[in-house]
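Retro notes, item 3 of 5
We never archived the inputs for the zinc ion complex last cycle. Fixing that now. Sequence and ligand:
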Amino acid sequence: MEASLTSLYQELILEHYRNPRNKGEVTDHTAEAHVSNPVCGDEITVQLRLDGNQIVEIAFDGQGCSISQASMSMMTVMVKSRERDEAINLADLFTDMMQGVEGASVDESLGDLRALQGVSKFPVRIRCALLAFDALREALGAKRGAGLKADPEADASGGAAHDDASQGETTH
Ligand code: ZN
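Structure as it came back at the time:
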C-alpha cells in the first residue's frame, strides 16, 4: 500500500475513533447483541431497530481500542437504512477483506471500512476490527459458516442435528 494511502486510512480510523457515529442507544430497539474481545479489553453492545427487513436505527455503546471503536462507528454508518440482507453481505465482504481474501480489499461498497484493511497485517488486532460485524450478525441472527461462533439456541428449531459441534471447542 502506498504510504500516503496508509496515513489517509489511519487518519480516517482516528477520526471515527474521536468522533464516533451512532454511539449511544436505540430506544425501542428490536435486537441487541453484546460482544467482547477479552484479549484486548473491547466490550461493546449494539442495538438496532428493524422495520420489516430494513435497519432503520443502529447504535453502539461500550469501550475498547481505537480499532474496535472505529470499526463500530464505520459499520453503523454503512448498514444504517440498509436491508438486512445487504448488511449481512457487507459483513461477509468485510470479513473477507480482513482475512485477506483476494479482491475483497478493493470493494468500494465497503466505504470507510476499507481503511481497516491495514489492520489485517496485525493478527492480534483483526478480532478488534471484526467485532463490529460479529455484533451485527448476532443481532440479526445471521451466521457465517466458518470462523464465527454459532448460536445454538437460534438454530434449535431445525431438528436435523448434524454433527452436534460441541460449543467451546475449536481446533485452532
Ligand atoms: Zn481492540
